[in-house]
Amino acid sequence: MPTLTIKSDKPMVLIPLEKYESMKETIDILSDSKLVEDVRRGIKDFEEGRSISMEDIKKELDVKDNQSEEDNG
């Protein structure tokens, strides 16, 4: 098992790189007040029933379902 030895009088934390990258991304998002407000507004809209299903969006944009065509092809 690998070991890591650091001589320091300050507390340290060792976390996996993936977790560190995730934490940095979260900090970036939370640092953007407009983005946070937009997310909050979106959540509120959804909770209050102001949402559109993916099927309705596809119909409105006249998007064909490629998966269905692949299944039949």
Secondary structure: number of strands: 0
Portion of residues in beta strands equals under 5%
Residue share in helices?
A: 55-70%
Sequence stretches where pLDDT stays below 50 over 5 or more residues: none
The backbone outline, from C-alpha atoms, is elongated
Radius of gyration: 23 Å
**H and E order:** HHHH
Roughly what is the average pLDDT, rounded to an integer?
88
- State the end-to-end CA separation: 52 Å
Put simply, the count of helices is 4
Structural class assignment: mainly alpha
Major beta sheet summary: none
Describe this structure in words.
It is a single chain. This protein is an all-alpha fold and 73 residues long. The chain has a domain at 17-63. Helix content is 60%, strand content 0%. It is built from 4 helices and no strands. The protein has helices spanning 17-30, 33-47, 54-61, 66-72. It starts with 16 loop residues before the first helix and ends with a helix. The mean pLDDT is 88.
Name a few traits of the molecule.
elongated; 73 residues; 60% helix; mainly alpha
Short summary:
With 73 residues, the protein is mainly alpha-helical. 60% of the residues lie in helices and 0% in strands.
Can you lay out the helices and strands and say which pair or pack?
Blueprint: H1 17-30, H2 33-47, H3 54-61, H4 66-72
